[in-house]
Specification:
Layout (H helix, E strand, L loop, with lengths): L1 H9 L3 H18 L12 H18 L4 H29 L3 H24 L8 H24 L10 H26 L10 H19 L7
Helix pairs in contact: 1-3, 2-3, 2-8, 3-4, 4-5, 4-6, 5-6, 6-7, 7-8
Length: 225
């Protein structure tokens, strides 16, 4: 338990803050689960984060237990896959222009092939998968940019402040833009450990992402004419 308290303290308590924001997104997602079709799978994003977070707590509470540490790393690898699938499904639903949709399909196929190859031929599934995180961030940022391009191509008929896809896209843009330098430093420069104080950037960025997801669930459906 001392190790757990120390890790949480080193991250300036941003990890429990992240889990609290994920819990809020889960509650709002359950309450408003029928409001928006494109958000039906998004609720599994904060749910997966909560599950992975509590697995991490179990691992940090007994750092000497190698099985717990292994479970933490494997849960991170599975979380990466689930995160990417959920985000891809979301953008596949909201990107309606065929010439743009094909680009996210290409990016999706490229990343899944890359991820499977990394899992098959390297130890990334059983080690902290920083390099996989890095490419995932770049791919999801491309999804965000493609959606923003679509906004300018479509007639200006939406109130973006009341548009759930806009809030989630901005949240993803914020999170993955903020954490790319973190993942790059860890994978290439190796200047700080996984659970150092600088890693609080990741937890704080996730907190803001989940708050944006919560805001998306609170948007009001636009009546169809």
């Amino acid at each position: 338990m001392n190790e757990l308290r120390e890790i949480i303290s080193e991250s300036f308590y941003t990890h429990p803050l992240m889990l609290s924001s994920a819990l809020l997104a889960c509650i709002l997602g359950i309450i408003h689960r029928k409001k928006f079709q494109e958000l039906q799978l998004i609720i599994f994003y904060p749910i997966a984060s909560l599950i992975q977070g509590f697995i991490a707590y179990s691992s940090w509470a007994s750092m000497e237990n190698e099985e717990n540490l292994k479970a933490d790393v494997i849960s991170e690898s599975l979380f990466i896959l689930l995160e990417f699938l959920i985000v891809y499904d979301f953008f596949k639903k909201i990107i309606i222009l065929n010439n743009l949709k094909k680009y996210i399909q290409i990016i999706f196929a490229f990343y899944i092939i890359y991820l499977l190859l990394m899992w098959l031929f390297t130890n990334s599934f059983y080690e902290h998968p920083i390099k996989v995180y890095l490419l995932e961030s770049l791919c999801i940022l491309f999804f965000c940019f493609i959606y923003l391009i679509q906004i300018f191509k479509l007639p200006p008929r939406l109130n973006l402040i009341n548009d759930p896809p806009f809030w989630i896209t901005i949240g993803c843009l914020f999170y993955f833009s903020c954490t790319i330098p973190l993942f790059f430093a860890q994978s290439t420069l190796k200047v700080f450990p996984q659970h150092g104080s600088l890693y609080s950037i990741n937890f704080l960025a996730y907190t803001i992402l989940f708050l944006f997801i919560s805001k998306a669930f609170l948007c009001n459906p636009v009546p169809t004419k």
